[in-house]
Structures are given as structure tokens and as C-alpha cells.
Amino acid sequence: MMASHAQVVSTVIQMRGVLRSALWQGWRRWTPLAIGIATFAVLTPGMFGGFVIARLAIGLWMLLFTALGWSLHIEAQHPVTRSQPRRALQADVRTS
């Protein structure tokens, strides 16, 4: 149980980094948060259900990791055209 809490904390930290960098757009930005929420909202209660419910919960959770992997794959094939994140560009404008 402690490992699932650590996993949720790490996905929230990842989500903060993804949002602050502003490099991912659309649904890809929310995949780390969806994994963290699904850990508590779907996976943990699903483990207390029956055999079939637990397997469905694990399957849904793994589909979210598939979406995260797909996001990383898309990002690797189509890198962002701008060289700096939006926040870094705004900081440069303020200092000059």
C-alpha cells in the first residue's frame, strides 16, 4: 500500500513538471495525473472487488500507462518546434 502512495506522489510531481514545461499539448498533458488518480479511484478499490473486477481495474490502469507510452512515442517522433518552453520565453521578454 505504501508503494501506491509513493506512486501517486511521483505522478503528481511529474504532472507539475509537464504542466510547467508547456511542451505537451492536449490529452498528453493529463496522462500522468490520470494515472495518479486512477491508482486511488480505480485500482485500490478494484483490488477489494471480486476476481473479475480486480482484473478489469488492473487492465484500465495499464491502458493509462499505454497512453503515457504513446505520448512519449509521439513526442520522440515529433519534437516541439520551439527550443524553449513558454515560461522561459516569457522570462526572457521580461528581462530584456
Structural class: mainly alpha
The tally of strands reads 0
Main sheet makeup = none
Question: What's the helical proportion of residues?
Answer: over 70%
Silhouette: elongated
Residue-averaged pLDDT, rounded?
Answer: 79
**What does the radius of gyration come to?**
17 Å
Can you characterise this structure?
By secondary structure, the protein is mostly helical. Helix content is 77%, strand content 0%. It has four helices and no strands. Helix 1 runs antiparallel to helix 2 and helix 2 runs antiparallel to helix 3. The N and C termini lie far apart (50 Å). The model has no long low-confidence stretch (mean pLDDT 79).
Question: Main traits of this protein?
Answer:
single chain, 96 residues, mainly alpha, 4 helices
Provide a compact summary of the structure:
With 96 residues, the chain is mainly α. It is built from 4 helices and no strands. The mean pLDDT is 79.
Topology, please?
Blueprint: H1 2-21, H2 31-47, H3 51-77, H4 86-95
Helix pairs in contact: 1-2, 2-3
